[in-house]
Amino acid sequence: MKHWFFSLLLFSLSGLSHSQSTKLLDSLLVNLQENTVSNKDVEMSFLISYDCIVNNLTKSQVLYEKLIKSKVVKEKVKLGDLNEKLALVYYLKGKYSESFKLHKEAIELYTKSNDLTSKANAMAQMAYEGKKRNLKSSIE
User: How many CB atoms lie within 10 A of CB 47?
Assistant: First the structure.
């Protein structure tokens, strides 16, 4: 009985997190429509769960594109992180060349910031995605 209750508790908590992420995504999109983007919005965008991004690809694409274009982000590492999020969205939507370009931009930003860990992660993600598809199509 204890195991059943614990499993139910974990399942409900994971659903709550996804629900909160979806609400967060929607509220950030409202802020963007009202042209009231702040650094706090950028920080909050990093809290959106992977599941939420995958289940809301179009909304996620709009969010990350607008955050990048807003010029609110001044730190190269954070801008690289936004590029990585958008690269994931493009990859999942089958837009491989756009994903590849964003990974390259992120790697350049991480290099300028001397953030070797983020650079290595971006390179590994780009290599993994390249292996999962035809690399020639991603370079075009």
Answer: 13
d(CA 81, CA 109) in angstroms, rounded, equals: 9
Q: Which two tokens stand for residue 75?
A: 């730190």
CATH 1.20.58 assigned to domain 74-140? The reply is yes
In a 10 Å sphere around its CB, with 0-12 CB exposed, 13-18 middle and 19+ buried, how is residue 12 labelled? exposed
pTM of the model: 0.79
> For residue 17, what are the contacts with CB-CB under 8 A and spacing of at least 6?
49
Question: What is the DSSP secondary structure assignment for residue 95, as one 8-state letter?
Answer: -
pLDDT tens per residue, range 12-63? 444 446 678 888 888 888 888 877 788 888 999 999 999 999 999 999 999 9
Which residues, in sequence order, are CB contacts of 47 under 8 Å at separation 6+? 21, 24
Question: Which residues belong to CATH 1.20.58 in the chain?
Answer: 74-140
